[in-house]
Prior knowledge:
- The protein is an all-alpha fold.
- It has six helices and no strands.
- The longest helix is centred in the N-terminal third of the chain and has 36 residues, at 2-37.
Amino acid sequence: DIKRLWREKLALFNTAHVDYQRTYFKSAAKRHTQAAGGLSVPRALATFAIVLSIVVGAVAALDGWPTFLQTLAPWLKLAEEPVRWQLGLGTLASALLANASARTLIHQDERNAALYTHTRTRLDDLVAARGPATEAAASDGDSDAVTAFVNDAQAILDADYTAWQFHRPPADPTVGPAT
């Protein structure tokens, strides 16, 4: 029976592919959201280094080194040199540049969570908008409707995969149905 075959194919695709991916994207988004909100070792080290650099830069720019530090580290006493303010600002600029560079690595969890959430939302929207109609079409043996649904779901997953492959953009940037 061709109608039974299309129902079974659609049910297998939904169970093994769409529903599994939706569950995975939900758990991955939750995991990355929690990781993004927590204090990780790289985030703590970067924050400490940035704060330390800003303090050193500000103290150097204002020539406010305590006397006991100047006796411990004579190189801190640069008051006679006219470039003291440049050294302080250079340290501040380096800290801010390091912060900007590190944020792309430190906050990877936020981007991952957003990508997983977006893909799951697109799959949820597809299932909500066309799932029941596609199941009815499969019961009627309408292979075109089932194939279109499968192709659209696969296009969403392909677009997600492509988003992880920054070095290889898709041949067609309009991959996937509009949601």
